[in-house]
Amino acid sequence: MTNHTARMGSVKTLVAALAAAGLAGALLTGCADANSKTEPAAAPAGPPVSAAIVAEKPVAETQEFSGRLEAIEVVEIRPRVSGYITAVNFKPGAEVKKGEVLFVIDPRPYQAEADRAGAAANAARARADLARLELQRADKLLADKAIAQREFDEKSASQKELDASARAAQAQFESARLNLAYTRVTAPIDGRVSKAEITLGNLVDASAVLTSVVSLERIYASFDGDEETYLRVGTRAQRGQAAIVKVGLANEEGFPHEGKLEFVDNQLDARTGSVRMRATLLNADRALAPGLFARIQVGSGVAEKAVVINERAVGTDQSRKYVVVVGADSMAEYRPVTLGPVVDGMRVVRTGLKPGEKIVVNGLQRVRPGAPVTPQMVAMDADATAAAVKADAKLALNTAAKE
């Protein structure tokens, strides 16, 4: 009886414990449900990106073209008389001055001819002088009626003939002197001479090219501009308002050489839509040589307000250019844009953006249109790229460390 009573007490105690445990579980479950209803889960944060405010500032737009440098003056040196070359007085590639003797052609035959022509001219002049004296005497005799009119007329005609012969002989003498001078082949301009195409001892005539000389003080940069550039600067250049042109060589960064647009052709090529243009540059340091490839930047010189962004903010979707705009709710928005030229390291945007909008300048690869982002603001200028890259690298390192 005692054992039965003890077992019944143990059962009642177990049931009471289970009931208490169930009630406690229900209470805990209720509390958990209540907490879940009062504290909703936070939305996941978007990937970190660098963003900047779209700027607007006065910009003097420029266009870039490829072209070639050309000498303003190019002279082929040819002999004006024939003969054997007896001297070559320059080093190939040297700078020469106008009038400097480059070649000497054997002058002895021309000296002899000049001496002969000079003697003949002197003799003709002496005969003409004698005829003039005789005509003066005949004039006095005619006044005294000592000679007939016919004799006077003959002496007058003879004097005129001898005077003409004297002038012809003098002209032959001058021609001989010129030929003698042409045996010394001189530089017609200041510039740089090429190599001697015909060397010492060779017989040359007027058809031979001895060498060439190109000017150096100034130089042309010739290129084919497009229709937009023609409309922007062509009319101003034709009115004498020369646009600024900057030139860079293949081994140079930027455009260190500055000149002025001095020629725009009178028509565009309808097949290519291009127009010939030419700028003039000073070449005091002789760094520019004819024939070199040149990168040419043409500016209008007139600053107008334009929307500008960092080049790094521009993405490419096949043939379309786009940027990612960060909305007020930090959502990424795909935005196609039409781009202009690069000016002072900033890209001009013609359509698609307005000043004051916020765009992603670094981290485009982590952004999906319509998804949230976590923007970190940087400056919208040419130096923002470096700052954005550093910030991006720092964020990537922090993210990797947390993982």
TrEMBL record:
GO biological process: response to antibiotic
Signal in keyword set: yes
One GO cellular component term: cell envelope
Domain named Multidrug resistance protein MdtA-like alpha-helical hairpin: residues: 118-183
Every Multidrug resistance protein MdtA-like barrel-sandwich hybrid domain range: 73-214
PANTHER family: ACRA/E-RELATED COMPONENT OF DRUG EFFLUX TRANSPORTER (PTHR30158), CATION EFFLUX PUMP (PTHR30158:SF10)
Family: Belongs to the membrane fusion protein (MFP) (TC 8.A.1) family.
Protein name: Membrane fusion protein, multidrug efflux system
Originating organism: Massilia yuzhufengensis
